[in-house]
Amino acid sequence: MKRIYLVPVGEVDPGLLERLAAELAQRFDVPCCVRPTPLSPEFAFESTRNQFLSTAILAELYDRGSPANTRVLGVTAVDLYIPVLTFVFGEAQVNNPCALVSLHRLREEFYGMPPNPELLQQRLLKEAVHELGHTFGLLHCPDYRCVMTSSHSVERLDVKTRKSPLHSVEPYPQHRSPPSGAGLPTAPVVKVNLEQIWLMAFCQMPLVLDTLR
Ligand SMILES: [Zn+2]
Predict the structure, then answer these.
(1) pTM of this structure
(2) Domain boundaries along the sequence of the chain
(3) CA distance linking residue 44 with residue 60, whole number of Å
(4) How far is the CA of 152 from the centre of ligand 1 (A)?
(5) Which member of 46, 60, 131, 155 is catalytic?
(6) CA neighbours closer than 13 Å in the CB half-sphere of residue 180
(7) How far apart are alpha carbons 90 and 79 in whole angstroms?
(8) Could you report the per-residue pLDDT of 189-198, keeping only the tens digit for each?
């Protein structure tokens, strides 16, 4: 059955997970539920960095398996890294059914600010849509306002918002995986509301839905 599963990786606030599941179900138009069995991330802990190796957790999620036509998104509160970067908000491989996101640096408290649960939920949703976008074959977008642009700070994550009213975009080519045989579908440049853009993993959402359905 077409479905998105959320897997808690370590201890994660259940209420936050349930709300993320509801939001993702709405955005992707498929059922999304939280798996009851968490994955402990301890095996991926790197003491010299006091962080957890993202790629190792992602591999473990993959080894656990996922039913056909589903996606598995691990959600963790621990700080993630990959060797070439100080940290990562999340990780996914294009067209791999598994992805991973971390709350650790999405919290305002990490930056010495008061807690902001609503902002945390917004950031988590954007990061989740971004990583799930990779699992559906989407690549990074050069437009900093697009949810599929690469983010290395919460400031960059926060500008993936709905502030600008209209934005000209070319819906397909820069977001698609390299063509395999047949040429890319062509689409006209269209005006799209930015709110719809980031909420719907940019304007190639039909491609995403085609993949899952
Ligand atoms: Zn990315």
Answers:
(1) 0.77
(2) 3-212
(3) 10
(4) 10
(5) 131
(6) 3
(7) 10
(8) 333 333 333 3
